[in-house]
Structure formats: structure tokens, C-alpha cells
Write a structure and sequence with these properties.
Length: 197
């Protein structure tokens, strides 16, 4: 679902209306469901990737928060880096590197038929990968407390307005907004609509 599509033009006002009709303490649930629906509208199978990234980094953040030293936090940071960059590399760069290796071997007279990963690049994979890595790096450095609420962390990773086109948001800025939802403010709505148009 593109931001300039009819589907989004129908989706967005419904989400906004439901958001303000939902009690503040439950708004994160609505936003998370809307974000997963938005992401699944591209391809349902890729929900597994964003869920895997979310769970790995949630656990890594919690575990790092229980460690006193950076050395004790390092294995959890490495887990996050390997999983997230591994997923990103597989979908974004695997065919390029395998094709380059095949060409290099062919130039040396060595025949090798490289395997090709025949899948579409998951939409937004770079944005959510680097956003969630920024979180784990901040927790590793002690600049961010781990988010203990799995739902709010999942929303931080998958928040639909910035999921496919950025910007990459720092956890220190976005997570507090999910904890303290704002009341309806007509002027902010008008200002937001002006920015969109």
C-alpha cells in the first residue's frame, strides 16, 4: 500500500478515527495492528521477517539491560547484528555477491552455476533493520533503557508512517510517544494535513 494510493487514502482516516476513539492506554494495540496490516498489504510472508527482527532485538535489549559491563552485553549485541544484517544481506545483497563470485570464477576458467535467490526485496527492510539496530546499539552503550513492553517495542519497529520511507527514528524519541499518547488537538491535525498536502 503506497502512501499516495487509494487504499492508503481509505486506510489512514479509518486508523486516525479509531485511534482517537480508542482509550489512550490501548492505542498502541490499534497502531500495532494497523502497522502489521499495512506491512502485510505488501506481502504477508514478510511479516515473519519483521517479527523475527523484533523478537531478537527485544530479547537482546532485555538481556543487555541485565548486564553490568559492556563485555557482558557484547554477545547480545552480536546476536542482534548477525541476525539483522544477515537477513538484510540475504535479501538485498546475496544475488549480487554470488553473481560476482560466479563471474570471478568464470574469468579464471572455473565453471560454477551460482544459486539465485528469486524473491522480491521486502519493503522497508533497510529502514526497520537499521532502526532496530540503532536501538540495540544504544542499549549496549547504556544510552537507552531496554523497552520491557514487547508490544510497544514491536510498534517502535513497525510503526507504519515511517516503516517504508523512513526516517529512521531513535528509540529515545519515538518510544516515549507510545507511552504517553496525546489528546486530540485540532490545530495539530490541521498542521499535519498541511504537511501532507
Amino acid at each position: 500500500m503506497l502512501f499516495n494510493s487509494l487504499n492508503f487514502a481509505l486506510f489512514f482516516p479509518v486508523v486516525v478515527a479509531l485511534f482517537f476513539a480508542t482509550p489512550k492506554r490501548h492505542r498502541w494495540i490499534l497502531l500495532l495492528a494497523a502497522s502489521y496490516y499495512f506491512y502485510a498489504s505488501w506481502k504477508v510472508a514478510y511479516l515473519g521477517l519483521i517479527l523475527a527482527s523484533t523478537l531478537v532485538d527485544y530479547v537482546a535489549g532485555i538481556r543487555m539491560g541485565k548486564q553490568e559491563s559492556r563485555a557482558a552485553r557484547r554477545p547480545y549485541l552480536l546476536l542482534s547484528l548477525v541476525v539483522n544484517l544477515g537477513i538484510l544481506f540475504t535479501f538485498k545483497y546475496f544475488n549480487f555477491f554470488v553473481g560476482s563470485a560466479e563471474a570471478a570464477l568464470a574469468s579464471m576458467g572455473l565453471g560454477w552455476e551460482a544459486p539465485v535467490l528469486d524473491v522480491l526485496l521486502p519493503v522497508g527492510i533497510s529502514f526497520y533493520t537499521f532502526q532496530t539496530l540503532a536501538y540495540t546499539i544504544d542499549v549496549y552503550r547504556g544510552e537507552q533503557e531496554p523497552e520491557h513492553h514487547l508490544g510497544r517495542f514491536a510498534l517502535y519497529v513497525s510503526f507504519f508512517p515511517q516503516l517504508v520511507a523512513g526516517p529512521i527514528e531513535r528509540s529515545q524519541r519515538l518510544l516515549p510517544q507510545f507511552r504517553q499518547p496525546k489528546s486530540f488537538d485540532y490545530q495539530r491535525v490541521v498542521d499535519g494535513l498541511k504537511l501532507m498536502l
